[in-house]
Amino acid sequence: MFRRGPARIGPERGDPTLANANIGFNDAAGRGNAATQNEEIEGHGKALGAVPHLGNRDKDHHKEEMLARLDDRAVIAVTGADSRNFLQGLVTNDVEKLAPGAALYAALLTPQGKYLHDFLLAEGEGAILIDCARVSREALAKRLQMYRLRAKVAVEPRDQLAVFAAWDDAPLRHAVSFFDPRVRALGQRAIGAIAEMPADTAPADTYHARRLALGIPEAADFGSDRMFALDADLEELHAVNFDKGCYVGQELTARMKHRATARKRLLPVETADGSPLPASDTSVTTGIRDVGEIISSYGTRGFALIRLDRLDGAGDAPLKAGDVMLRLKRPEWLFP
């Protein structure tokens, strides 16, 4: 159940309790997360400078530098005595490591180890909150309900909550806030009540432009039931824990890891001449040989699932999708 009355979701700037902030779940675990420092945007060489506090910010500050509301995201709340154990047996990451201020990135796979849904997990408001793609929330909730059986859990949408992205080290007031666990350059993430959050926010496109510049896939960029977890870069994005117990799709994922049989990677691509990237399912070729396919496209950029062994064997042959020349990007978080 949600906590009644006003809750202290996050500390104010300068609050000495920041490192162990109580953001909900009735402080059952008594865990905290150490404060962290600004880092450079990987592969871009620009420092993430601190900006004024996001809550009640001055109207003259540029909103696109601070806070974006992600209307393409939605929230599911998992509550009940068995909520942690329930998710632990389903998702790819170790839910036992979930703590106030320390979110997790995770995925739900098919029994054959292929991607179905990715999401962020956060602890707050007396629940485990799932930050997921809006278009797939119903399907994700339905699948979780299918696995519920006799577990003492409730899986419910939380339409009064919205998801926000921010580029500031200061915690958001009136929100469950945390650093994005995938890549630090994505900044902060927050889940807050729509009525209590700032209304003057940047559009979701601001966040997605940053995400695409960093080459980070999410949601539709993976397709559905078409690629294995390790092909989808989920290990490098910190979504897979190989030390936890069983979860759906764990056997094949672990086998691919230990036998090093993952030959594909989901990679960011862009057109060489600035023309639109061809649609999904378009073959990517070098010469007459297929090396992959386009999975998603956003104007001139997108993601392609590439066979690395075939790409290496192609040498300097040009990369094309249809008649369009492509440039393959190698983000630092994936190729350190």
Structure, explained:
The strands form three sheets. A six-stranded antiparallel beta barrel has the order 10-13-12-11-14-15. The N terminus is likely disordered. The termini are far apart. The protein folds into two domains: about 200 residues, Probable tRNA modification gtpase trme, domain 1 (Gyrase A, domain 2, 2-Layer Sandwich); about 70 residues, Aminomethyltransferase beta-barrel domains (Elongation Factor Tu (Ef-tu), domain 3), CATH 2.40.30. Strand 14 and strand 15 form a beta hairpin. By secondary structure, the protein is α+β, with helices and mostly antiparallel strands. Helices cover about 15% and strands about 25% of the residues.
State the main characteristics.
2 domains, Elongation Factor Tu (Ef-tu), domain 3, Gyrase A, domain 2, disordered N terminus, alpha+beta, 13% helix, 336 residues, 6-stranded antiparallel barrel
Beta-strand proportion: 25-35%
Tell me the number of strands.
15
**DSSP helix fraction:** 10-25%
Task: Report the order of strands and helices.
Answer: EEHEEEHEEEEHHEEEEHEE
- The unreliable regions are 1-64
CATH superfamily membership of the largest domain: Probable tRNA modification gtpase trme, domain 1
In DSSP terms, counting alpha (H) and pi (I) runs of 4 or more, how many helices? 5
Provide the residue-averaged pLDDT: 82
Q: How does CATH name the architecture of the largest domain?
A: 2-Layer Sandwich
